[in-house]
Amino acid sequence: MSEYRLKDLVKIKNGRDHKSLADGVYPVYGSGGLMRMVDSYLYDKPSILLPRKGTLNNIQYSDQPFWTVDTLYYTEINQNKVDAYYLYYYLKLLDLNSLSSGTGVPSMTFGAYNGIKVKLPQLDIQKKISTLLRAIDKKIELNNRINAELEAMAKTLYDYWFVQFDFPDDSPQGQGKPYKTSGGKMVYNPTLKREIPEGWDWKPVSSIIEVKDGTHDSPKPSDSGQYLITSKHLKPSGIDFSDAYLISQEDFDAVNKRSKVDEGDFLLSMIGTIGLSQWAMKIETPYAIKNIGLFKTSQAPEMADYIYAAVTSLHGRAYLQQNQSTGTSQPYVTLGTLRSIPILIPNEKVFEQFNGKIKPIHKLMYENITENQKLAQLRDWLLPMLMNGQVSVGEAS
Fold this sequence. Notes:
This protein is an alpha+beta fold. It is 33% helix and 24% strand. It contains nine helices and 23 strands. The strands form eight sheets. Strands 15, 16, 19, 20, 21 and 22 form a six-stranded mixed β-sheet that branches. Strands 2-8-5-6 form a four-stranded antiparallel β-sheet. Strand 5 and strand 6 form a beta hairpin. The longest helix is centred in the middle third of the chain and has 40 residues, at 123-162. The two termini are 22 Å apart.
């Protein structure tokens, strides 16, 4: 192992304002992540993006042309000494909050970054470790892309059947043609303020299953116990435990008296990015929830996939957006809004046909999320041992 200062390995550069840029194809990153896409870029080589202000541990990496704003440094990397991807993961293991300049908003200076000590193995070993980490990350990215496509398919299917009402009409008159387009009878519903197929009804989701919202208290962090999950921990790739803290078993039990998550339920973010959702099909890591919508679909397993599709559809999310509340730093929806989400009740045959199509999609999405979580756990378990030489790439693979 050779020891360097970070200044020996990279040149740190300031980000710049992006407001004058037109929309385009190049990502703009801030300390919180992707902000927008623009028509120009600051740098087009592999780079580690280092927070200047805000969330200091959110180190990012880009190997495509990009722009960074003034809260995020970018780096020019000396690739004769260090592999960029290896250094990215090395820095992610560090606690940068301890190096903050101490102002009200967590901040990092050039000097604080430049002085960081970095211990590196030979470059060829770095590249072998980097190759392993990239392989894991690429599989996670592939699963995320597949799930994005599956989610789009599910939303399109729900929209076609329950918004446009062009489900296959298997009646003698319909002969399998699209119901509404082919003249299927529609009846105006004054509550929904739109036409729905004859013989259909609707119910608020809370009349089918319980809908809860987690604790309103803020249990204190604990050295041991169980995780507390909030809306910010719901990600498209699954529940992100990396930024969650533990609460005592006593607090965990108290929260779960109000809002216990059981296998077969699903969660919905209520603040910030409203509508992000996650199934709790299998709970391997126990957790409690705070200010998250909890839909107790475990109480009606035969309707679980349909309710999930309805709530997370484009139509369902539009309902949440139309009924969101403001007045705080972030938009939010109330428990009352969640409970009032309208669920269409189709005839039994349409319901069974739709369930047969949507269940396999949801099952594959969940399997991909579960695989991603296991891959991420494997990667994070290997990381410190790879970085300090406790295990070689040959032993890890």
